[in-house]
């Protein structure tokens, strides 16, 4: 996996903002799942689901 897309998605994200936790957590889940299972499709699907769930429910203002 290349880090370019993650860098461009997270580079302007203010880390002091609580809303920044959703993509950071989703990225950690995606990387961890990919390192564990070595399946890009599952990693991306689960990471996207985690991001959308956190952003729309748990961390929504």
Short description, anyone?
The protein is mostly helical and 61 residues long. Helices cover 70% and strands 0% of the residues.
Can you walk me through this structure?
70% of the residues lie in helices and 0% in strands. It contains 3 helices and no strands. Helix 2 runs antiparallel to helix 3. The radius of gyration is 12 Å and the shape is globular. 8% of the residues are buried.
Helices and strands, with pairings:
Elements: H1 4-10, H2 21-37, H3 40-58
The run of helices and strands is HHH
Number of strands: 0
The best one-word shape is globular
Q: Main sheet?
A: none
Helix content: over 70%
Helix and strand composition category: mainly alpha
* Percentage of residues in DSSP E strands: under 5%
> What gap, in angstroms, lies between the N and C termini?
32 Å
